């Protein structure tokens, strides 16, 4: 079988490792650059992996080495926090570097080396006028992705993503394990969580289907939940059902400000709170746009949150046949 090569920038993370596992059933083979080879080297055990390369993807000369020879490039790099923003700025320099400058550099490298398909990960709610720096920078990132007409671009906007090793339900499950009650900021904010395998399937579909070029796909699950409902479900599914109460906005902001000062990767930042001022709900369905029937959270989350089966290692991840 002749293989196509795809460079998966940011491929060592939660969503990337699921996309790479899914590629094992296809004629695509992945190359993943990483800032820390040791963190990502387990990916080499996945059958679809060609190589893991320690590299600084922000360096244009490095992109000129990584990009040539690939049929497509996927970019999954994203950060949630940026403490550098000054008042009056749309966002700080770290959001600008990761979400805007990087896609611009990647598509420029694709254009220089004749790579015609760039798959860009954005976020549901990306908007230049969004209330948070994260979402404003994601909107400018989409514009940067589309900055070179020589490169065909497919953009994905997921709501919050759940699945084995997610950063969201697992966090609430671990808090439920430790604390008897759970105070929640922005408890009434709405989300439409999407299963990571469905997100991975959307990327694999786009790699194989050139009609996805020039399109923006919202990725969302079958059900809209409030954050309060999701925190309750995470506790219940993990075997630690807990009362959940909403924090008043002033206390929520104070808590976020304190958490920001305690850690570079806080559990919650004021910008995260700002993101939740708008509902994270899709206007289209994956079933209609991509032919993917979205998986219900209740169908899969209890198994991986309850810990009643061994935590899947990335190399042995269950690879489901494309649907
Ligand atoms: N997870 C969600 O619920 C969700 C929802 C909406 C949108 N998204 C978007 O989906 C994408 C992937 O999300 P994820 O949850 O898989 O994230 P993740 O687990 O944090 O993985 C992102 C990867 O990007 C690389 N990376 C992070 N910061 C970087 C930087 N400054 N420069 C270069 N590389 C960097 C890291 O790789 P190395 O450490 O190996 O270099 C990391 O493994 C992101 O763009 C995110 O904004 C995610």
Describe this entry's structure for a reader:
With 323 residues, the protein is an alpha/beta fold. It is built from 12 helices and 13 strands. It has a domain at 4-166 and 193-223 and 280-295: Rossmann fold (3-Layer(aba) Sandwich). The chain has helices spanning 14-23, 37-40, 60-66, 93-112, 133-145, 169-178, 196-208, 227-237, 249-262, 270-275, 286-290, 297-306, and strands at 4-9, 28-34, 49-54, 72-75, 117-121, 152-158, 161-162, 182-184, 190-191, 194-195, 216-219, 225-226, 244-246. Strands 3-2-1-4-5-6-11 form a 7-stranded parallel sheet, sandwiched between helices. Helix 4 (93-112) runs parallel beside helix 5 (133-145) and helix 6 crosses helix 8 (227-237). The longest helix has 20 residues, at 93-112. The relative contact order is 0.15. The model is unreliable at 309-323 (pLDDT under 50). NADP nicotinamide-adenine-dinucleotide phosphate is lined by residues 10, 12-16, 34-36, 39-40, 57, 76-79, 98, 121, 123, 158, 160-161, 167-168.
């Amino acid at each position: 079988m002749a293989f196509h090569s795809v460079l998966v920038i940011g491929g060592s993370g939660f969503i990337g490792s699921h996309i790479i596992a899914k590629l094992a059933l296809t004629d695509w083979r992945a190359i993943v650059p990483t800032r820390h080879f040791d963190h990502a080297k387990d990916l080499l055990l996945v059958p679809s992996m060609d190589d893991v390369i320690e590299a600084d993807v922000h360096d244009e000369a490095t992109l000129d080495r990584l990009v040539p020879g690939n049929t497509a490039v996927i970019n999954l790099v994203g950060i949630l926090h940026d403490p550098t923003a000054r008042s009056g700025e749309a966002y700080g320099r770290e959001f600008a570097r990761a979400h805007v400058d990087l896609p611009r550099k990647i598509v420029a490298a694709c254009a220089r080396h004749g790579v015609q398909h760039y798959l860009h990960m954005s976020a549901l709610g990306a908007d230049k006028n969004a209330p948070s720096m994260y979402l404003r920078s994601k909107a400018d990132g989409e514009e940067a992705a589309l900055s070179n007409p020589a490169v065909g671009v497919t953009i994905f906007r997921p709501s919050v993503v759940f699945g084995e090793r997610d950063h969201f339900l697992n966090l609430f499950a671990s808090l439920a394990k430790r604390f008897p009650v759970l105070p929640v900021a922005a408890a009434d904010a709405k989300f439409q969580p999407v299963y990571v395998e469905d997100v991975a399937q959307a990327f694999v579909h786009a790699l194989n289907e050139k009609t996805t070029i020039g399109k923006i796909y919202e990725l969302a699950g079958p059900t809209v939940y409030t954050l309060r409902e999701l925190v309750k479900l995470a506790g219940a599914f993990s075997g630690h059902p807990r009362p959940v109460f909403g924090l008043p906005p002033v206390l929520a902001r104070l808590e976020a400000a304190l958490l920001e000062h305690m850690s570079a990767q806080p559990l919650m930042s004021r910008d995260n709170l700002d993101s939740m001022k708008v509902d994270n709900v899709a206007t289209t369905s994956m079933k209609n746009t991509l032919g993917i029937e979205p998986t219900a959270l209740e169908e899969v989350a209890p198994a991986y949150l309850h810990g009643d089966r061994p935590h899947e290692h990335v190399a042995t991840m269950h690879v489901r046949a494309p649907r």
